[in-house]
Amino acid sequence: MHLPEDALAPDVSPADVPRDAAALPGVAPGPAETWLRIVQVHDRITRRVDSALHRKHDLSLTGFEALRRIADAPGERATMGEVAEALGLSRAGVTSTVTRLVAQGLVTRERTAGDRRLLHARLTPAGRAKVAEATPTHDDLVAHLLSLLGDDAATVTNALARVSAAARTRR
Fold it and tell me: Which of 61, 72, 143, 168 could lock onto 50 through a cystine, CB 3.0 to 4.6 A?
């Protein structure tokens, strides 16, 4: 690819322009660059949303996500394993998160009569109110940030869903 010198910005010389379009950032990224972008986007969005939830609702992003999953579960109760699976966390991580939510009065722990081994987290009225109050903050900020994907949103979402499914831990 050769560009006439007058097509370039004044501070760009023809030697600065790659001859191969695939050498341009983002045009044909290799696996390392794709991985870096996924990690960067996840980290930056997570920190931004976590900060907003802490500031406005005194709630971590992980706490919000756990509350939302419990709220969406049948009877507003879910096992620790179900919450862990939904959030992509270890059971120990979910146990720690649920312990904080219990201390805040947002969920309770309970065992079912049918299987005393299973521990469930159940939403309290305060938890229901907290998730309802925090949902617009979370959803509006995430929607705003992801709107930058423009017309590529469906393509990116579908591609990431395929990778997620393929990488899912088998038990």
Answer: 61
